[in-house]
Amino acid sequence: MAHLVSPSLLAADFANLQRDIEFVNSSDADWFHIDVMDGVFVPNISFGMPVIKAIAKHADKPLDVHLMIVDPDRYLEVFANLGADILTVHIEACDHLHRTLAAIRALGMKAGVALNPHTPVESLSELLHDFDLVCLMSVNPGFGGQSFIERTYEKVRKLRKMGDDAGAKFHIEIDGGVTTSNASALVEAGADVLVAGSAIFRAENPGDATSAIKNA
Ligand code: DX5
Ligand code: ZN
After folding, report:
1. What domain range is 122 assigned to?
2. How do residues 65-83 score in pLDDT, each as one tens digit?
3. Which of 56, 141, 145, 181 fits as disulfide partner to 198, beta carbons 3.0 to 4.6 Å?
4. Residue 13 appears among annotated catalytic residues
């Protein structure tokens, strides 16, 4: 199956959010990537529930919600009610990851787990059948526009092999510093969802940039 593209709305123009959402609706993109930051788990604060509610009203593709917040269990139901299709929590923010992933699935969403650059993919070895997506952070989370950490390729290859060996099926999503130049190498390494913020919304032609990443 072709890989998926999930434009990160963090890089959208918030004063023209409806326009940028409609752009994604009509582009080659597959999902909306929505970054929620609490100023505690990461140094930055992005946006919260009222903004996501407004996004959901206009978005006609799945909402891929990436929680960069401490103790995400407090809000799983809230995000389900907001219309999240995929809900991703950080392994570093969960004391009981198995329980959290099961709770996300029980609410009818796809369960994702995100790993910071320092977290080894082996930390998922006991849970390979318990999630639908792994988000490998290829920058330190908190900000858009940072440069890609090259070590990520090796993590993708290792994780894809772990999944294949276990007969587990899950998406491998790459988040941070994805560009039209590194997209094809990431797919070749085994990634099948590419998040891109700056590479799409700061491009001269966002539609062309989206297609280039989609067809990489
Ligand atoms: C970073 C966020 C990313 C970010 C990616 O903490 O999780 O989704 O928006 O932005 P770019 O593609 O600009 O690196
Ligand atoms: Zn993200």
Report:
1. 4-214
2. 999 999 999 999 999 999 9
3. 145
4. no
